[in-house]
């Protein structure tokens, strides 16, 4: 069991002055022996927020990408400039072209060209994560997550083509789990594979029957009441003590989960710090 500190560097909201808020996610994870940057936001917020929070990006041993969307990969050029020797863990499909079509309006949402170029210039450090693997001691990435629950979908109108003829299942979606002094902690990017699918798969991989904390994006903004209820049931079944839902989770979903699981929801914003050191204290900004 390890003492681990997690800082939210980029998020849709910010907890203090001097930090930028943007639609994106980036999480800094400090373990006794290594540092991990999980996702990089859209790009603009990462340099300013990392500096303001005194995050030593140059000490990153690993960069893990939850999936290939722009709001999780846009800060890669800065991250790789600061930590050129860091290994980059990503699913092979993270480079796929991606589009969102809402109300007939098409928008490209794939990895930005500068981020893709930065990765290609560091191709020797790329580790493909089609399957689960250990990133650093005590921290694992799921790789591709099986989609077993029919009530869970990717969370939006996502496609592989501009005409919207080829639905994008986002097979590159992956999450992290960590062995901490308080118990197992799960860090989600967007959970396009589904929160319940993700938690059940991590349980299958790790043998964990409960999680101390689940944090990150849950992509539940368009979720049905049935799906929200099933998600709450899973969080309760796994005895999750702290839920730090943010980014793409959606305000209504956060409110729903807070009502169903009182006392477990804690703030997740840029500047929020979570210490898992065995004291099981309340975390937050």
Order of helices and strands: EEEHEHHEEEHEEEEEEHEHEHE
Which CATH architecture is right?
Answer: 4-Layer Sandwich
Helix content: 10-25%
Give the class-level CATH name.
Answer: Alpha Beta
Low-confidence stretches: none
Instruction: Count the domains.
Output: 1
Q: Total strand count, please?
A: 16
Strand neighbour order, sheet with most strands: 8-5-4-3-2-1-16
Describe the sheet with the most strands.
7 strands, mixed
Give the arrangement of secondary structure elements:
Layout: E1 4-10, E2 26-30, E3 35-38, H1 45-52, E4 62-64, H2 70-73, H3 76-82, E5 87-90, E6 99-102, E7 105-108, H4 113-121, E8 126-128, E9 133-136, E10 139-141, E11 158-159, E12 176-180, E13 183-188, H5 195-206, E14 213-217, H6 225-237, E15 242-246, H7 251-260, E16 273-276
Helix pairs in contact: 6-7
Annotation keywords:
globular; six-stranded mixed sheet; 285 residues; seven-stranded mixed sheet; Metallo-beta-lactamase, Chain A; alpha/beta
Walkthrough of the structure:
The protein has 285 residues and is an alpha/beta fold. The protein has a single domain (4-276), classed as Ribonuclease Z/Hydroxyacylglutathione hydrolase-like (Metallo-beta-lactamase, Chain A, 4-Layer Sandwich). It has helices at 45-52, 70-73, 76-82, 113-121, 195-206, 225-237, 251-260; strands at 4-10, 26-30, 35-38, 62-64, 87-90, 99-102, 105-108, 126-128, 133-136, 139-141, 158-159, 176-180, 183-188, 213-217, 242-246, 273-276. The chain has a seven-stranded mixed beta sheet with strand order 8-5-4-3-2-1-16. A hairpin with a 4-residue loop joins strand 2 and strand 3 (35-38). The longest helix is centred in the C-terminal third of the chain and has 13 residues, at 225-237. It is globular, with a radius of gyration of 17 Å.
């Amino acid at each position: 069991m390890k003492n681990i500190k997690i800082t939210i560097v980029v998020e849709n909201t910010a907890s203090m002055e001097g930090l930028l808020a943007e639609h994106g996610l980036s999480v800094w994870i400090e373990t006794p022996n290594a540092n991990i940057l999980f996702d990089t936001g859209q790009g603009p917020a990462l340099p300013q927020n990392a500096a303001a929070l005194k995050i030593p990006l140059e000490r990153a041993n690993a960069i893990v990408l939850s999936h290939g969307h722009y709001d999780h990969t846009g800060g890669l050029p800065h991250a790789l400039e600061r930590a050129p020797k860091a290994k980059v863990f990503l699913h092979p499909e993270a480079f796929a072209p991606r589009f969102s079509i809402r109300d007939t309006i098409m928008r490209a949402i794939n990895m930005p060209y500068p981020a893709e170029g930065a990765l290609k210039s560091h191709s020797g450090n790329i580790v493909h994560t089609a399957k689960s693997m250990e990133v650093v001691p005590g921290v694992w990435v799921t790789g591709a997550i099986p989609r077993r629950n029919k009530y869970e979908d990717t969370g939006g109108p996502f496609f592989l083509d501009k005409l919207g003829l080829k639905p994008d299942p986002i097979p590159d979606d992956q999450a992290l789990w960590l062995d901490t002094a308080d118990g197992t902690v799960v860090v989600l990017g967007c959970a396009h594979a589904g929160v319940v699918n993700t938690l059940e798969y991590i349980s299958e991989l790790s043998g964990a029957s409960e999680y101390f904390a689940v944090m990150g994006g849950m992509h539940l903004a368009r979720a049905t009441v049935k799906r929200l209820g099933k998600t709450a049931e899973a969080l309760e079944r796994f005895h999750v003590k702290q839920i730090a839902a943010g980014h793409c989770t959606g305000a209504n979903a956060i409110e729903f989960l807070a009502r169903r699981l009182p006392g477990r929801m804690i703030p997740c914003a840029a500047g929020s710090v979570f210490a898992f050191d065995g004291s099981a204290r309340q975390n937050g900004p």
